[in-house]
Amino acid sequence: MHGLAVLLFPAVLMLFALAMERMENGVDQNSVHREEVEEFLAGAATPDALPTPADDELAGRRDTIEFDVPSSFGHAVEVPVHRAG
Fold first, then answer.
1. Which of 2, 53, 70, 71 could pair with 57 in a Cys bridge, judged by C-beta atoms 3.0 to 4.6 Å apart?
2. What are the Cα distances from residue 41, in Å, to 28, 29, 32, 47?
3. How far is CA 32 from CA 20, 25, 35, 37, in A?
4. Predicted pLDDT at 59
């Protein structure tokens, strides 16, 4: 049984390598090249887009987030207030 495995393993490994090479060639033909991506990103950049808010502007809002707990839980369970930051 070990002799059969020794004889078949190189053949199976070679078939696997050839199959992966064919798959890689197929993927390379259908993929987008780096130049095309850079061209798309350059054309998609809009100078009038709104800037994202700075962290300082949202810090006050994040510190006051509280989660409502349904009254069916009763008062025996204490729910801590989540403080982000």
1. 53
2. 21, 21, 13, 13
3. 20, 13, 8, 7
4. 62
Q: Which residue has the higher pLDDT, 67 or 39?
A: 39
The neighbour count for residue 62, using CB atoms within 10 Å, is 12
pLDDT in tens, 27-60: 888 888 889 888 888 887 666 666 666 656 666 6
For residue 85 the two structure tokens come to 């930051």
| Distance, CA of 11 to chain centre | 37
Taking CA atoms, 26 is separated from 22, 37, 69, in Å, by: 6, 19, 54
